[in-house]
Design goal:
single chain, alpha/beta, Rossmann fold, 5-stranded parallel β-sheet, two-stranded antiparallel ribbon, 6 helices, 7 strands, about 30% helix, about 20% strand, globular
Length: about 170
């Protein structure tokens, strides 16, 4: 039986959603029997090859996030927005009511101008503003049990169903 290829990426977020993936604990061994990880915290690959399932955490706060997301989406047959930041901008979107130039000058006394730094966007955006998202896993972060349910449903060819108690917003 062919293993499904799974990849992950993190954009403007805290990496908490990836931690939820790792928090499935010993179930990781069961998961590894069913999937092959491409780009993920388990492999440390920086680029994604074609895969069956892509998990994206974090929103879009700069031009590099947009570029990474577009390239990632091209490689993924199914894309899941994981967590509040990917779904609605989350905590990073709290800056949306502020002027980015004013924020930068108050911190750095000038607007940083270095080709190594990605161009900040005026607002933080959810990923579905830029690419098609097939499924969403809400939470901040989603629990390990919710992550497990999503993955096992998708691996079994079922539409994910997250029953009572698996979704939290705290």
């Amino acid at each position: 039986m062919r293993k499904l290829k799974v990849a992950t990426t993190s954009l403007a977020g805290c990496f908490g959603c990836h931690t939820s993936l790792l928090d499935i604990d010993e179930r990781l061994f069961t998961l590894l029997e069913l999937v092959e990880f491409d780009r993920s915290p388990l492999t440390d690959l920086k680029h994604c090859s074609p895969c069956d399932l892509g998990l994206v955490e974090g929103g879009l706060c700069n031009a590099e996030n947009v570029h990474v997301l577009r390239e990632f989406r091209k490689q993924c047959k199914v894309l899941v927005a994981v967590g509040a930041c990917a779904i609605n901008g989350g905590l990073p979107a709290q800056r949306n009511h502020l002027d980015v130039r004013e924020c930068l000058t108050s911190v750095y006394r000038t607007v940083p101008n270095d080709p190594e730094l990605p161009l900040p966007l005026d607002q933080v955006h959810p990923i579905n503003n830029v690419v098609r998202v097939d499924y969403s896993l809400p939470g901040c972060p989603p629990s390990a049990d919710a992550m497990w349910q999503l993955l096992t449903d998708l691996l079994a060819g079922r539409t994910p169903h997250l029953g009572h108690g698996l979704i939290r917003y705290d």
